[in-house]
Amino acid sequence: MAESAAVFVSEPLVRMPSAPLVHDNQVGARRLSAAGVRRISVHSPYTGELLGSVPDSGPEQVAEVVAAALRVSRSWAALPIKERTQPLFRFRELLLSNLDALAHSAARECGKTVAEAAAGVEKGIEVVEYGLSLQNLDGGASLEVSRGVRCELRREPVGVVAGITPFNFPAMVPLWLFPLAVTLGNPFILKPSEKTPLTAAELARLMHEAGYPEGVFSVLHGSARAVEALIDHPDVHAYGFVGSSKVAASVYTRAAERGKRVLALGGAKNTLILAPDADPALAVQGIVASFTGCAGQRCMAGSVLVAVGPCDGLIERIVKAAGAIQVGAGMGAIIDPASVDRLRAAVERGVADGARVVLDGRTAPAPLGYEGGSWFAPTVLDHVPPASHCATAELFGPVLSIVRVPSIQAALEFEHASPYGNATSIFTQSGAVARQVSDAAQSGMIGVNVGVPVPREPFSFGGTKGSRFGHGDITGQGGVELWTHLKKITSKWGTNTDGSWMS
After folding, report:
1. Domain for residue 2, yes or no?
2. What's 233's domain CATH number?
3. 67 and 203: one domain?
4. What beta strand segments (E) does 243-392 contain?
5. Is 390 exposed, middle or buried (0-12, 13-18, 19+ CB in 10 A)?
């Protein structure tokens, strides 16, 4: 049973603020006072130290932020889309020039490495660039449907909208949402995770610097009561959510009961199918990166490996490569101590269910100088029973559960049994096997020799089954559909001799 070696760090893993940051709800550059409201403390997964605090907003604070968005809603929607796009050009340049600062901000509060955080911002910039293209792509339509009668199609904003985003991508996921929403004419309210709310203030600063009018982009802080008040507010009309499936279902139900539009993306138990003919270089790198990247704290992590037939040699190489990863320099921290305890308990439960621990990261030493952080090294369980907790539940950490099956068809049956449907990947050198899995898999995103099959823009992001509540996807054209509705205009300006204008 392999164990991780001690880690020594010669330079800081991430820059920490010189003093705790105190942030409030924000409308443009204006900070809203929240006197008397309980504050939420934010601690770094790297060290456990206090990073800052934000207010735990309630209905009164929600109403104040929504009122500011309402004041600008009509004037912002009335602008031509080419004018609404101009600040987005400046925002993109500001993101690029502030990339390092944003990466350190996101990394120190959510635990990922600075390189991973920077990659997340860069993925968000892709969505910004898609938003920039909307001024030329989304032109509506007009057609003479019969003599003297013309039908016109216009895409209209829905009004004040909101995004409720998770702890693991404090920059990237918001950037999937608000650049499209505001470009399409909607004032946007961002409610970041209370575990990682500080990067949102940086995004708000850059949006103001880009020239957006006050109220077009706002940040609302808080816990579940803030989310509930935001959903209940009658003047907020649409929501984008990313988080666990349990909370996604709750958000979707609450919003739908109030007649609101909502797309809530949930969790996953993504299946990596390993065929015995897989290219070793592609398979080992792709699988290890999938389950250890972002310390496994992402909805696209491949956390269950379904090994088809004789794959022992490939599995040995996977275990060796994962065991060489050092926490700190090579893989970031876990979000908080409670999550570390949950992961340890899951591994113990896996052993009790009959799995074998072939790589044990439960007792890995912390990087020198970061002993107060939350650390859990890559861990691999082999011969995991297919119906067990570790094979079916989203563990949300760097734990790979290996299930052994005799055939590709058996691997697909395992994939079909999952209540989730974010991603499925197949590692093989056979085009026929790749096509079989691509055609039969039920997930919304499929990878062929790709361990994290996140589509690049303009291809949209979204899953199926219990990984999505609502209709459509959250980026690309799906994002356009989420934040707009279609207005249809039928015009007739003269008489004609037809028996019916519909003819």
Report:
1. no
2. 3.40.605.10
3. yes
4. 261-265, 270-274, 302-308, 356-360, 379-382
5. buried
Q: Is residue 20 part of a domain?
A: yes
Q: Distance between CA atoms of 43 and 46, rounded to whole angstroms?
A: 9
Q: What is the CATH number of the domain that holds 282?
A: 3.40.309.10
- What is d(CA 337, CA 128) in angstroms, rounded to the nearest whole number? 35
The answer on pLDDT for 373 being more than 80 is yes
Distance CA 318, CA 250 (A): 38
Q: Which domain holds residue 471?
A: 12-266+467-487
Q: Quick one: the chain helix, strand, coil %, rounded to 5?
A: 40, 20, 40
Q: Does any domain span residue 461?
A: no
Integer Cα distance of 252 and 154 in angstroms: 27
Is 299 an active-site residue? yes
Whether 190 and 304 map to the same domain: the answer is no
**236 in the same domain as 163:** yes
- Both 279 and 391 in a single domain? yes
Closest CA to 319 of 311, 331, 328, 327: 311
The tally of domains found in the chain comes to: 2
Same structural domain for residues 406 and 298?
A: yes
- Point out the catalytic residue in the list 110, 299, 311, 390: 299
218-274 pLDDT tens trace: 999 999 999 999 999 999 999 999 999 999 999 999 999 999 999 999 999 999 999
Least Cα distance to 444 among 283, 308, 299, 253 occurs for 299
CA distances from 22 to 55, 206, 236, 361 (A): 9, 18, 27, 35
Regarding whether 74 and 152 lie in a shared domain, the answer is yes
What tens digit of pLDDT does each residue of 424-470 get? 999 999 999 999 999 999 999 999 999 999 999 999 999 999 999 99
Strand segments, DSSP code E, in 140-285 are 141-146, 149-157, 161-164, 188-191, 217-219, 238-242, 261-265, 270-274
Neighbours of 362 (CB within 10 A): 16
Contacts of 134 (CB under 8 A, 6+ apart): 81, 85, 180, 183, 184, 480
The stretch 167-189 carries a mean pLDDT of 98
DSSP string, 351-398: HHTT-EEEEE-TTPPPPTT-TTS-----EEEES--TTSHHHHS---SS
Element (H, E) at 126: helix 114-137
Is residue 231 within 8 A of residue 254, CB to CB? The reply is: yes
Torsion over CA: 244, 247, 249, 255 (sign): negative
Residues 187 and 57 in one domain: yes
197 is a domain residue: yes
Q: Are residues 247 and 363 in the same domain?
A: no
